[in-house]
Design goal:
The chain is mostly beta strands and 564 residues long. The protein has a single domain, classed as Capsule assembly protein Wzi (Porin), CATH 2.40.160.130. Strand 18 and strand 19 form a beta hairpin. It starts with a helix and ends with a strand. The N terminus is likely disordered.
Length: 564
């Protein structure tokens, strides 16, 4: 029935012939989104745009260019002989077809990857299809860009069945407080989403409306502490800037949201386990969750290229909403916690400070984000123990001229994400980034983390070296991914066996290429998982350094985008 309604709405809008100026560039759009950020390093786009509040409104970054053909040296083809823009006769209704996209992903051994929107963590092949239309009438804009997912969701070896029962019990101690299932049920998984859709009223530099689009907050490229496109987009009311607001002290960008988060409906492991005859899984409440969030970025006029920002989010169960202070908790004082197990005002909160410094003359940028998870203390406590419940992201990116005559560059990117807790008492209490004992789904939507896709207690070091020219990119990516080190210390604190860390070492080849109307993207990544699922094989008489339950996973991503 939902699919039927969605098809009817799309067909109804398509009959109305409406070139538009305020469509968004969805978070994670292959080639196009990162092109704008690289172009800013070269001084080719507006240097007042922070790239910390996304999705972008590309018409406000470069008004002279078609948002889907931002490289003005690129010839615009029409392979299907289709009319991209139109206008209804004798009216001011106008519109545009949005790019059609098909993205696929394949994992050979076990789930891997993040920042993939509506896709799920799964073994096997999955395909995401998206097409859309954008209409504008005066200040009113409607963007319909639904997404359709089908995934094989094949079975795979998850948490090792040979682990001791007490280790299973400690696993559930953590994952009973976050909605992160290892597998989304059994067998084929298919679902339709509203995707990157919205309806807005726009006035000058401001926009107000209803949206299901993915959001990205902060300066990170591989990860973001509060908002990323790892989970599917969620329904939210939004008040945001379309372009930087100019003031006597500099420019500002921001967004204020109130949204509805959904549960996955799946248990942490399949099948579930028991301990001394007691089921370890404690079902989570079925109530929906309300999420309030705010981000504000300031570009001081005295320091060109510097962006300073703050973001915060707070979620609570829908049944606990009572009054304006629950709907807008971001403007209310934070209550201190009286006891370790006391719910924080029945809310789950996190916030961060960030900066991005753009140096166009050096074709480089540096950025940093520092956040606190469920922080309930005051300023004095923050100054005394800033390391408690902290996480951070640090990155640097530079373009090196390779062939100036042909506008070619070598791009070097480095990013480090650290979510691991460094307070042992918090680790033993099961307090991790994105988990919550008060809001037991944790900071998730439909079973995936809203923030950094590497998940609770994890760390990532990433290096990317690429050749780039316009929309074209060919490169190599090297990563070291440490899975939930907080769980490792909690589960194995009796021994702290340093051989048992679950670490993924990977190398990937990336490819993005524009050809006529098409943008083709591909990624081939080999991942060596050391001590997969934290399991270390060891028998009496074995040498001390032994091979763990290692696994090799081949991930293949491929997609094509057709621009009308």
């Amino acid at each position: 029935m939902k699919m039927l309604k969605l098809s009817f709405i799309c067909a109804l809008v398509a009959f109305v012939q409406f070139g538009a100026t305020a469509q968004t560039l969805p978070v994670g759009t292959p080639a196009l989104e990162d092109y704008y950020r690289r172009a800013q390093l070269l001084g080719a786009t507006d240097s007042s745009v922070s790239f910390t509040v996304r999705p972008l409104f590309p018409n406000y970054i470069n008004k002279k260019a078609n948002p889907f053909y931002p490289d003005t040296t690129e010839h615009q083809y029409n392979m299907l002989n289709a009319k991209r823009t139109w206008k209804l006769t004798n009216t001011n209704i106008k519109g545009v077809f949005l790019p059609l996209s098909v993205q696929t992903q394949f994992n050979s051994d076990h789930p891997y990857g993040w920042n993939d929107g509506s896709m799920i963590p799964a073994k096997g092949l999955q395909t995401l299809f998206s097409v859309g239309i954008f209409a504008q009438y005066g200040p009113l804009t409607i963007q319909l860009k639904p997404e359709f997912l089908i995934a094989a969701n094949s079975d795979f070896e998850n948490f090792n069945k040979n682990s001791y029962d007490v280790i299973f019990a400690r696993y559930y101690d953590i994952y009973n407080n976050i909605d992160l299932p290892v597998q989304f049920g059994k067998g084929e998984y298919d679902k339709a989403y509203w995707g990157q859709s919205s309806i807005r009223l726009n006035y000058k530099s401001l926009s107000f409306g209803l949206s299901t689009e993915n959001l990205w907050w902060g300066p990170g490229i591989r990860n973001s502490l509060l908002m990323s496109n790892t989970a599917p987009g969620f329904l939210h009311v939004t008040l945001n800037t379309l372009r930087p607001l100019q003031t006597p002290i500099g420019s500002f960008e921001g967004q204020l949201i109130g949204g509805k988060l959904s549960n996955s409906g799946y248990a942490p492991l399949t099948p579930d386990h028991s301990y001394f005859g007691t089921d370890l899984y404690i079902p989570k409440p079925n109530d929906w969750r309300y999420l309030a969030g705010i981000i504000l970025t300031w570009q001081p006029k005295w320091i060109p290229g510097l962006f300073l920002g703050f973001d915060q989010s707070s979620q609570t169960y829908g049944k606990d909403l009572n009054g304006i202070r629950d709907y807008l908790p971001l403007f209310a004082p934070v209550k201190k916690v009286g006891a370790p197990d006391e719910a924080i005002n029945k809310q789950d909160q996190r916030s961060s400070l960030f900066m991005r410094w753009l140096w166009t003359q050096e074709h480089a940028e540096i950025y940093f984000e520092f956040g606190h998870n469920n922080y309930t203390g005051d300023l004095t406590q923050a100054l005394l123990s800033p390391e408690n419940s902290r996480a951070y992201i640090f990155g640097i990116r530079k373009l090196l001229p390779f062939n100036t005559a042909r506008n070619e560059n070598i791009m070097v990117s480095v990013e480090v994400t650290q979510l691991q807790e460094n307070n042992i008492s918090k680790i033993k209490d099961g307090d991790e980034w994105y988990t919550s004992k008060g809001i037991r789904q944790g900071y998730t939507n439909l079973g995936e983390v809203l923030g950094a896709g590497i998940g609770p207690g994890a760390n990532l070091q990433s290096v990317d070296i690429s050749w780039v020219k316009g929309l074209k990119k060919i490169g190599l990516q090297f990563e070291r991914y440490i899975h939930n080190n907080d769980f490792y210390y909690y589960a194995y604190y009796d021994s702290y066996d340093f051989r048992r860390h679950w670490v993924d070492l990977s190398i990937a080849a990336n490819y993005e290429w524009n050809f006529k109307n098409l943008i083709v993207n591909a990624k081939l990544q080999g991942i060596k998982s050391l001590n997969y699922q934290w399991y270390l094989r060891q028998n009496p008489g074995d040498p001390y350094f032994v091979n763990g339950a290692n696994a090799f996973n081949l991930q293949v991503q491929a997609g094509v985008t057709y621009r009308f």
